[in-house]
Each structure stands twice: as C-alpha cells, then as structure tokens.
Write a structure and sequence with these properties.
mainly alpha, Farnesyl Diphosphate Synthase, two-stranded antiparallel ribbon, 2 strands
Length: about 290
C-alpha cells in the first residue's frame, strides 16, 4: 500500500468508528425505520466527504475533534441523497454500492422516510454543534446551504429537468456539476476552514468546487465504460435516460482530457497551502484513477 492508501485507511477507520457508534445508539420505532437507516449507512463506500474533511483539517491545522460531528452530519446528508436518488421517480436504480437499493429492500415509502430521517437527524447534530460558538454556527449553516435549495437540491432538480433536453448546454451541465455533486464536497473542504478562523477559505472553496467537477466528470465516464464491480450501481443509465452529462456535451475522449485539465487545476490550488498537503495531492489522483 502507498502512503496515501495507508492514510486514507486511517481516516476511514476513524470515521467508521464514529459512524458505528452513531448507528449503535439508534433506537427508532418502528423497527423498520431503524433498520432502513442503518442499512444504507452501513452499505460501505469510500466515505469520500468525511475522509476529505478530516484530512483538510489536518492539512490546515484544525483540531479534528472539532470537525468529527460535522463529518458525521455530512455523511448522513449524503446518504439520504443517495436513498432518494435511487427511487423510481428519480434515477431509478436498483443497486447502491453493489447491494439492493434501500427502496428495493424496504419499499419506496419507507425509503423516502429513511432519507427524511437521515436529513433531519443530520440537522439535529448540527444544531447541537451550534451550542459551541459562532464558528460552529457558521459551519453548520454552510453545510445546510450546500445541501439545500441553493446547493445539492438545486443540482438534482436541474438534473431531472434537463433530461431529454436538446437545448441544454455546457452552462447547464456546469450548474448541475457544481450543485448536485460539488456542493457537498465543497462543504467537506470549507468546514475545517470556518472552524479555524477562515484559514485558506477561498482556496479550499475553489478546491472543493474543482474536486466536485472532477468527481462527477469521472462518474459520467464510468457510466459509459466502467463496471458494476467498480461502481456498485447500474451502468449505461445516463444514455438510456438521455441525461445531460459530460459525455453527452463533450464526447468521451474530450471528457478524459478534461479530467487531466481539472486535476491539474486542483493541484495548482493545493500548491498554495503551507504544510504537508501530500494527502490532498494523492486525493486528486485517487479521484482521477477511478478510471484506471
């Protein structure tokens, strides 16, 4: 394993321990609600957003203890979005992380409630953090804004709206990328800054936006030439549903060129951070090599 791999595993283990503790304390009634929440939270995955948040905290010298509950809330929000995204009236996917989607196990109604439950619980965690001071209030609000109607939900709405839209172009695609995917990733990079007096705020915000673009661009490519084993979800759906994607706008080969360009943009931003930013350099390569 590379040093990056070892560091990633360390962050992942730290966060998964926090998530396990959270799941073990859940005691919802009826039991199907509890089971559906835990099912989706423990499906696995790379936990990209919380790992990134913990890593950025280390890079800029923010106490990781300050960000842990924000990382937990962010993962709950992300998981709720995946549950809802898989529903028949959204992206209609039967699989998530290689296993049946929440609605395939518990039914569509319970899946909706599971997503609602995770979102509300995330906000409860954020409210508790607000009691710790003004910077915690600002960090909580930032996550809420990234998740809401000026962030992820706006991107998801645009994604649905522009299916089968022959007139939608690059400007709409960039709006979808920035909001549907980029905003929660930006929350992961910016929250440690807010909790550390705004250190590298502009650079970390720009980095989050670029990383979100890079992640979604590689996702669009993998939908064309990836594998179920790698993605853990159905392939070829973007084309079948005539989604607005990078492949549709730029073509497959040009998308791959853009991956290198955007990846280089990320590295240039990281160059501006003092201290040991080797994990962040590795993180960019980690997203790019999803195509390898």
């Amino acid at each position: 394993m590379t040093q990056f791999d070892l560091s990633y595993e360390k962050y992942l283990e730290e966060f998964n321990a926090l998530l396990d503790k959270f799941c073990n304390k859940l005691n919802c009634r009826p039991a199907v609600l509890n089971d559906s929440l835990v099912y989706s939270l423990k499906l696995g995955g790379k936990r990209i957003r919380p790992v990134l948040m913990l890593a950025v905290a280390d890079v800029i010298g923010t106490d990781r203890e300050k960000v842990k509950n924000f990382a937990l809330a962010l993962e709950l929000i992300h998981t709720y979005s995946l549950i809802h995204d898989d529903l028949p009236d959204m992206d209609n996917d039967d699989f998530r992380r290689g296993k049946p989607s929440n609605h395939k196990v518990f039914g569509a109604g319970n899946a909706i409630l599971a997503g609602d439950g995770l979102l509300n619980t995330a906000y409860s965690i954020l409210f508790d953090e607000c009691l710790k001071g003004n910077e915690f209030i600002s960090a909580a609000k930032y996550i809420c804004d990234c998740a809401g109607v000026y962030g992820m939900i706006a991107g998801q709405s645009a994604d649905l709206l522009h299916e089968h839209d022959p007139d939608a172009g690059e400007d709409v695609l960039e709006f979808i990328y920035e909001n549907k995917t980029g905003k929660l990733i930006t929350a992961a990079t910016v929250v440690p800054s807010i909790l550390n007096g705004g250190k590298y705020y502009s650079g970390l915000k720009a980095l989050g936006k670029k990383l979100g673009y890079l992640f979604q661009l590689t996702d669009d490519i993998l939908d064309v030439e990836g594998s179920f084993e790698k993605l853990g979800k159905s392939l070829g759906k973007d084309s079948a549903e005539d989604k607005l994607t990078g492949v549709k706008i730029y073509g497959l080969d040009n998308c791959k060129l853009r991956v290198d360009i955007v990846g280089d943009d990320c590295l240039k931003i990281i160059d501006g951070f003092d201290g040991d930013a080797s994990f962040l350099y590795g993180f960019v390569n980690f997203i790019k090599t999803r195509l390898g």
